[in-house]
Amino acid sequence: GAGVSQSPSNKVTEKGKDVELRCDPISGHTALYWYRQRLGQGLEFLIYFQGNSAPDKSGLPSDRFSAERTGESVSTLTIQRTQQEDSAVYLCASSQRGGRLSELFFGSGTQLSVL
Amino acid sequence: EDKVVQSPLSLVVHEGDTVTLNCSYEVTNFRSLLWYKQEKKAPTFLFMLTSSGIEKKSGRLSSILDKKELFSILNITATQTGDSAVYLCAGDSGGGADGLTFGKGTHLIIQP
Predict the structure, then answer these.
(1) What are phi and psi of A85, to 5 degrees?
(2) How far is CA A109 from the centre of its chain?
(3) Beta strand pairing call for A10-13 and A110-114
(4) Is the bond leading into A25 cis (omega within 30 degrees of zero)?
(5) Which of B32, B92, B102 has its CB closest to that of A43?
(6) Which of B41, B103, B104 sits opposite A109 (nearest CB)?
(7) How far apart are alpha carbons A102 and A74 in whole angstroms?
(8) What is the pLDDT of residues B48-106, one digit of tens each?
(9) What does the radius of gyration of chain B's CA atoms come to, in whole angstroms?
(10) Could you tell me which residues come within 8 angstroms of residue A13 by beta carbon, excluding any fewer than 6 positions away?
């Protein structure tokens, strides 16, 4: 697609439920990132996928968070047993790699509200 | 641990004023520094800086990097209400995460 697409744009869920967030990166971008942004805060790195390499999960805050990506296409971020502290905007970004300096293209994010 | 600190955290000025936003960084294996403008949810790319002392310019916006003192500034001249946004600075590391370390951003409000 022309840009990074995320869905849903807004998600309201009850505490304890699981949620799945989707990111469709720019075609041809090998790198895909998930970030979390709490209200009034900067972007917090969650997880990074680069091609078919093992993902860098060092930013995931707990084992309730997981993400998958098939090849160089769509990624899903899953949050199990959601807590109120999970409420935030979840941003996905993609970029080209392979010797080039990075430039991230962000999606519009998913606003997650846990009641 | 990599760190990026932006100042001020918020700034309110009048239309037509010039503003300078600051970003200092401590990034292992530093490769570049990036500036983004965030309106609503999606940050949009402004500048990528890799070399010291070379100003990058786009319209009323300009930015420069000092790799000796480990900081960058973003200047906006003749500000307009459409410049109101959160401006994010990020350090690009060649480390294991191969990602960016973001600052908390400067929330800029331009009053008419």
Answers:
(1) -70, -10
(2) 8
(3) parallel
(4) no
(5) B102
(6) B41
(7) 20
(8) 999 999 999 999 999 999 999 999 999 999 999 999 999 999 998 765 445 678 899 99
(9) 14
(10) A19, A82, A112, A113, A114, A115
